[in-house]
């Protein structure tokens, strides 16, 4: 060899690996959008090993807490969670914020307390793996030269998490394709030449006006199955702070004690203080939402306790009977919040028979800002729970 | 984007500086099929921890990418992927080629024969241009230990390249090391070598 082998190796570096090689503009936009959609505020993560510290959190009906995304749901699930007006395959949920059963006035507490009773009666046996599957719908605006239209992008996320410390967790994700949302959108899509790929504007958070771009396809993607390491401390869930499966399973079932325990995890808030800031209510609604929506492996007793705690908050309204984005019928409760993008309603749809939450959805009641193009009552997104159970095995 | 927040501006600048390098690292470690995913995950982590990202960001980012690869992709799959990439980068030479070209191809092919740890260090130093200190940071060892490992990796690379049937150039000593002594003898204690 006629020289230093490191020099020869450096010269042998394939051209495509050159640091100055051009990155495709669309890829750049998509990757930046995805990265920045994947987390809110900078999170100081303790310990070493960035990857082990990934937050696991499903944005419940509190999209308001933007940035609460699971690491796996990289694909901007954050953004506008709930959605889906009348996109093709599913019957669509109510189009008005009032639900579809006029004349029936339900008290939110009645709904919540009934759900608590049902939840409490559910049998549960923890097995080797906690298994959970969610279908996510997101509404996006496509800014075509021939006229803008709205598409709904579907994706699914499924995971298996070991019930005991250690081991691997497994995550399966799949893009299920994007479609024009309403008949008018179908027409506008056809005028645009029925493209198979959509470049969409993605609000950075439902509360902000900043927008990024991302790309979605009409065609369904192939599923990807990947391993993820369970952090050494086992803390793979987020309830205001990172918590482990063990901590989740040990939550108190009594609503008052549950509230106190959760508030202990409410950062920036002194639970010993007698003056509880109002803000904590909204926060509790979000956190309790993730306890009742079936995404976390909490015991039926804790779920019941969370429902009762919600009932005690008084900031939740009942909307009555609605269908979720999957077309399943349930009873909904809601909270409303004012944002620069209009008045948004967060709904939790509960199966009255079991006390399970079927889905959480976000609806724009009074569109403004980045949602100004949408009709009032349009669904921005939904996260529907398809399966949540314990199982003895996970896919190879 | 017109009025980006300072965080976004810095993050975008880091992305523009390093994205291709992170991608190149992922391709050279585990093949292009997984490279995009690794890049995506790496920058998602970087965004979440953007206040922790040092200057220069590259060694830190490569460390994150390395964890992503280690956690989510099997070693066996990584090796197969590298071999596949190699077939693309170093096709068998068509016949008579210049000595330089033959040498480069032989070295590339020799990379596939190395243990993954050797290959990684060579990639960090020769392809990513990291200093031993920076490379040590990526793989999580002391700079001294890295120098030792680099030395051994380089020696094994030479040996593998010389064994390449298409490399007609024949053996040449590299550095102070003559062909196959089992241990390097450049004043390294066995403790440092572990």
**What is the H/E order of chain B?**
HHHHHHHHH
Spans of chain B of at least 5 consecutive residues whose pLDDT stays below 50 are 167-194
**Class of secondary structure makeup of chain B:** mainly alpha
Q: Determine the strand fraction of chain B and express it as a percent band.
A: under 5%
- Give the overall form of chain A: globular
Q: Quick one: which chains have the greatest interface?
A: A-B, 47 and 63 residues
Rough outline of chain B: globular
The average pLDDT score of chain B comes to 77
Tally of separate domains of chain B: 2
Q: Work out the helix count of chain A.
A: 8
Task: Profile the largest sheet of chain B.
Answer: none
**What's the CATH superfamily of the largest domain in chain B, by name?**
Winged helix-like DNA-binding domain superfamily/Winged helix DNA-binding domain
Question: CATH topology of the largest domain in chain B, anyone?
Answer: Arc Repressor Mutant, subunit A
Highest CATH level, the class of the largest domain in chain B? Mainly Alpha
Number of strands of chain A: 13
> Care to count the β-strands of chain B?
0
Beta-strand level of the residues of chain A, as a percent range? 25-35%
How many distinct helices of chain B? 9
- Which regions of chain A are unreliable across 5 or more consecutive residues at pLDDT < 50? 39-105, 268-278
Q: How would you characterize the largest beta sheet of chain A?
A: 11 strands, antiparallel
Question: What key attributes describe this structure?
Answer:
heterodimer, A: 11-stranded antiparallel sheet, two-stranded antiparallel ribbon, 13 strands, 21% helix, B: 194 residues, mainly alpha, Rna Polymerase Sigma Factor, Chain: A, Arc Repressor Mutant, subunit A, 9 helices, 68% helix, disordered C terminus
Task: Furnish the topology, listing elements before pairings.
The complex is a heterodimer of chains A (396) and B (194).
Chain A: H1 5-11, H2 25-37, H3 108-120, E1 129-142, E2 149-162, E3 168-180, H4 183-191, E4 197-203, E5 211-217, E6 224-229, E7 237-238, E8 242-243, H5 245-249, H6 255-264, H7 279-292, H8 300-313, E9 317-323, E10 329-339, E11 342-350, E12 357-367, E13 378-391
Antiparallel strand pairs in A: 1-2, 1-4, 1-13, 2-3, 3-6, 4-5, 7-8, 9-10, 10-11, 11-12, 12-13
Chain B: H1 6-30, H2 32-48, H3 58-72, H4 75-89, H5 99-113, H6 116-127, H7 132-139, H8 143-162, H9 190-193
Helix pairs in contact in B: 1-2, 1-3, 1-4, 2-3, 3-7, 4-5, 5-8, 6-8, 7-8
């Amino acid at each position: 060899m006629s020289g230093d082998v490191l020099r020869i190796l450096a010269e042998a570096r394939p051209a495509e690996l050159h640091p100055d090689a051009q990155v495709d503009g669309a890829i750049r936009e998509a990757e930046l959008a995805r990265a920045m959609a994947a987390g809110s505020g900078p999170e100081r993560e303790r310990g070493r090993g960035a990857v082990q510290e990934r937050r696991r959190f499903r944005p419940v009906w509190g999209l308001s807490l933007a940035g609460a995304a699971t690491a796996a749901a990289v694909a901007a699930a954050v953004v506008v969670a709930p959605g889906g007006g009348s996109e093709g395959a599913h019957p669509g949920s109510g189009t008005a914020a009032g639900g579809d059963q006029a004349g029936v006035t339900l008290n939110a507490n009645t709904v919540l307390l009934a759900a608590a009773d049902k939840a409490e009666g559910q049998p549960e046996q923890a097995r080797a793996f906690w298994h959970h599957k969610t279908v996510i719908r997101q509404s996006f605006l496509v800014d075509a030269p021939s006229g803008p239209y709205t598409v709904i992008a579907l994706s699914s996320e499924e995971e298996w998490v070991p019930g005991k410390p250690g081991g691997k967790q497994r995550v399966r994700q799949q893009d299920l394709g994007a479609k024009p949302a309403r008949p008018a959108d179908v027409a506008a899509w056809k005028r645009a030449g029925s493209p198979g790929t959509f470049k969409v504007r993605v609000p950075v958070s439902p509360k902000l006006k900043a927008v990024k771009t991302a790309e979605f396809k009409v065609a369904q993607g192939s599923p990807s199955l990947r391993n993820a390491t369970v952090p050494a401390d086992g803390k793979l869930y987020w309830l205001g702070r990172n918590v482990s499966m063990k901590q989740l399973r040990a939550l108190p079932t009594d609503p008052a004690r549950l509230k106190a325990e959760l508030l202990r995890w409410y950062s920036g808030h002194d639970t010993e203080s007698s003056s509880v800031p109002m803000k904590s209510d909204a926060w509790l609604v979000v956190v309790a939402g993730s306890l009742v929506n079936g995404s976390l492996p909490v015991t039926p007793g804790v779920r019941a306790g969370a429902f009762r705690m919600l009932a005690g908050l008084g900031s939740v309204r009942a909307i009555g009977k609605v269908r979720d984005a999957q077309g399943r019928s349930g009873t909904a409760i809601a909270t409303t919040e004012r944002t620069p993008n209009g008045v948004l309603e967060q709904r939790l749809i509960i199966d009255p028979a079991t006390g399970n939450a079927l889905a959480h959805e976000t609806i724009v009641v009074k569109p403004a800002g980045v949602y100004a193009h949408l009709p009032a009552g349009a669904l921005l997104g939904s996260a529907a729970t398809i399966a949540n159970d314990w199982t003895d095995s996970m896919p190879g | 984007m017109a009025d980006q927040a300072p965080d976004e501006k810095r993050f975008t600048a880091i992305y523009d500086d390093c994205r291709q390098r992170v991608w190149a690292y992922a391709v050279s470690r585990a093949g292009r099929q997984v490279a995009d995913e690794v890049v995506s995950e790496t920058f998602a982590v970087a965004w979440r921890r953007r206040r922790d990202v040092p200057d220069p960001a590259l060694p830190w980012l490569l460390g994150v990418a390395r964890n992503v690869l280690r956690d989510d992709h099997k070693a066996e799959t990584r090796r197969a992927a590298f071999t596949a990439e190699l077939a693309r980068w170093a096709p068998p030479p068509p016949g008579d080629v210049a000595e330089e070209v033959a040498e480069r191809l032989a070295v590339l092919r020799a990379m596939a024969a190395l243990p993954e740890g050797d290959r990684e260090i060579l990639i960090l130093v020769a392809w990513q241009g990291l200093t031993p200190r920076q490379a040590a940071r990526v793989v999580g060892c002391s700079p001294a230990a890295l120098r030792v490992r680099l030395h051994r990796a380089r020696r094994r690379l030479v040996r593998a390249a010389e064994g390449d049937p298409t490399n007609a150039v024949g053996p040449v000593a590299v550095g102070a090391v003559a062909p196959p002594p089992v241990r390097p003898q450049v004043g390294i204690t066995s403790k440092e070598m572990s």
